[in-house]
Amino acid sequence: MTKILVADDHQLLIDGIKSTLEDVEDIKIIAKANNGFEVIKILETKKADIILMDINMPYMDGLECTKIINQKFPDIKVIALTQYDEKRFVKRMIKNGASGYLLKDASKAELLKAIRDVNAGKKYFSPKLSVKFLEDHYQTPRTNPLFPHLSDREQQVLNLICKEFSSNEISKQLNISYNTVENHRASLMEKSDTKNSAGLVRWAVENELID
Question: What is the distance between the alpha carbons of residues 166 and 39, in angstroms, rounded to a whole number?
Fold first, then answer.
């Protein structure tokens, strides 16, 4: 019997997964969680084989939760089940220890295949991802809560901040005013939810946003 923990902040999604899997004899949902903190707390008292992990959850998102699980509970496998198809999400989930990545429009057959493959020690990544990645080359990047879209100028300023340029130096480099640089810096910190340049640089490196 494969024991599943479902982590998602939308009860409707959890109910849908439970309904989808309730007639599958070799799979059992043993718990649900609405954020990463709840997942970790549950795992301290219950044994799960696989976690179906949403990425965008309050308090602790699926990226951070997967990283902690990989460190504290290395025998437990994580499959991302998310609406996000950006390459950066996939790469960060793999880096943090995920064994699979599914989109929320996956069929029951694909969900079962992912669970069974991962439970057998294999990896599973939705075939749709390769199509999505190809399409991204021809489309304007979309904005989402975890990875906000940056303007070309914001990207230039971010690159220079990460190279330890001061605002005065950036002003001269890009031929814009000091105040304009400061406004871009403030906008970048707001979009990244960081409080200082060190936090901004760390965020940029983690999310592969610098050249």
Answer: 42
